[in-house]
Fold:
Amino acid sequence: MTWRHSIKSQLLITLVTGLTVMFFLLWWAVNGSLRELTANYLEDRMEVEITAILAELTLDNEDTLILNSHTVDALFRFAFSGYYYQITLHGKNEPQILRSPSLGEFVLHLPALQVGEKIRFRGKGPKNENLLTLVKTISLREKKLTIAVAEDLTPLEKDLDAFLWIYGLISLLFLGLLSLLQIMAVHQAMLPLKKIRQDVLQLETGQINKLQDNVPDEMKEVVNQINLLLLRMEQRLVRSRSTITNLAHAMKTPLSTILQIVHNPPDQKSEVELRQEIKQLLSNLHEMIERELRRACLTDHPLPCRFFNPEQSIGILIRTLQNINFQKRVEIELNLVSGKSLPFDHEDMMELLGNLLDNAFKWANQKIRVSIEEINGQAIIQVEDDGPGVAPDETEFLTHRGVRLDETRPGHGLGLAIVRETVEHYSGSLSFHRSSILGGFQVEVMLPFPVVRQ
Structure:
């Protein structure tokens, strides 16, 4: 099993990747924010120093720059102290430049600015150190005066780098701890899946008949649907066994009669009569088996518990029954819900309608009418024919297994009994009437839609 097919692996990879990206972005944001805050703090301090220098700066009658350097910060007087200033007066002739003693012979390379402009930038100092420089241009006696103050960033950057290393190591430690906690949480969350797997193995060996529902809410719906599927399959198995049992009982009587004739033939009947009676009994048995096989073919489908779509399925069912009853030319009138699936098991509905239509084909003269409607949250199924119908006092016996009101017609009295069991399974109702449209027998089935939890 690869990680692509493992929920646990995908969760862990997603969580750890997300945490790693989050910590990296946090480190990047802290790094940028601290450096920007430091630069802003230094800029404010250099603004104060520029103001102090301007206060001590004058021009004599010959427009020569004069700076009282003794009142300026002493740090500007020590060679390569890391604190520098450079003053440039732009006149008609060569510009006058005053530099702090700390610069020595080094000249700061400054951008050309207009009067009133200010700029902050990073550059290199006399010892190739990183400098933060603030440049400001003002007007002095109609001349442009540019003042630049610079400060060495090396000590601050070392302290900042040391802090970021410590912050990074602490972040990695927290990342490892959080990743470990996530691994433990995902492992704990996956335990119910292992329990479900164990339940499935027990289900396979017959130790339990359904999955335990004490699982997290996210898995409860899946477990409930599986249990519902198991229940339907079990009910279908019970109905199949019941059908087989009843078929066996229906076959038992003619088989017993045949054995009785073979072992103790009646003296009053000739050999030809006995052969004819045995032939008739065998023919009945053959017809009985053939009808069960036809019903099995009608309901057979490779996808159990698929919803029932009348428009897609009824046509196949009718064509099959027309091929079986080819000796009759019966017109079929359909009135179906348009393009909609009903929330009932496809196989159950095919078995129910197969039995109802098989019964209708047996008794109809020329026409059968099938109606499937959706009314007030329930499906109304009506199958009616133009046959002789059934007397009202006889309808109560129709759903009894093995009961046939007309022994001359083929069958063994299981069809409507199977219909009744299917209807009861869906908590529906089954009723018999005389058709007001065709005049024959009418069966009405009402099935409430099951409540589907969202």
